[in-house]
Amino acid sequence: MGLAYYVRSVERHTVLLEQEAVVDYALILFAGFASRYKRRMSGRRQILAYLIPGDHCDRGVLDGYPLNHAIETLTRCEVAKVPRAAYLNLLAFHPRIALALQHARLAEEATAHEWMANIGMRSSLERTAHLLCELMERLGTIGLISGGQLDLPLTQVDLADALGHSTVHQNRVLQTLRRDGLISLQERRLRILAPRQLRELAEFEDDYL
Amino acid sequence: MGLAYYVRSVERHTVLLEQEAVVDYALILFAGFASRYKRRMSGRRQILAYLIPGDHCDRGVLDGYPLNHAIETLTRCEVAKVPRAAYLNLLAFHPRIALALQHARLAEEATAHEWMANIGMRSSLERTAHLLCELMERLGTIGLISGGQLDLPLTQVDLADALGHSTVHQNRVLQTLRRDGLISLQERRLRILAPRQLRELAEFEDDYL
DNA sequence: CGCTCGGTTGATTATGGTCAATTCGCGTGG
DNA sequence: CCACGCGAATTGACCATAATCAACCGAGCG
Question: Is the pLDDT of residue B4 over 80?
Answer without folding.
Answer: no
